[in-house]
Amino acid sequence: MQIQNAWCAIRHHLLSTNQCTPLKTLKSIHASMLRSHLDLNLFLSTHLISKYALLNSMNYAFAIFSSSNQTPDVFLWNVLIRGFADNGQPDRAISLYHQMRAVGVSPDNFTFPFVFKACANLRDVEEGEKIHADAAEFGYEFDIFVGNSAVSMYGKCGRFETAREVFDKMPERNVVSWSVMIAAYVESGCFEDAMGLFWRMLEERIRPNRVTILNLIPCVCRKNEADEIYRIVVENGLDSDICIRNALMGMYAKCRRVDIARIFFDGIPEKDLVSWSSMIEAYVQADLPIEGLELFKQMKLKRVRPDYVTGLSVVRVCSNLASLRQAKFAHGFIIRSLFNHKVVIETALVDLYVKCGSLEYARRVFDSMRERNLVSWSTMISGYGMHGRGKVALELFDWMKGSMDPDHITFVSLLSACSHAGLIAEGWQCFNSMIRDFHIMPRTEHYACMVDLLGRAGQLNEAREFIENMPIKPDAGVWGALLGACRIHSNVKLAELAAKSLFELDPENSGRYVLLSNIYMFSGKREEADKVWGLMKRRGVKKTAGHTVIEVKNKVYTFLVGDRSNPQTDLIYEELDRLMERIREEGYVPNTNFVLHDVEDEMKEKMLYVHSEKLAIVFGLLNSGPGSTIRIKKNLRVCGDCHTATKFISKVTGREIVVRDAHRFHHFNGGMCSCGDYW
Ligand code: ZN
Ligand code: ZN
Question: Which of 55, 203, 525, 651, by CA, is between 20 and 30 Å from 122?
Answer without folding.
Answer: 55
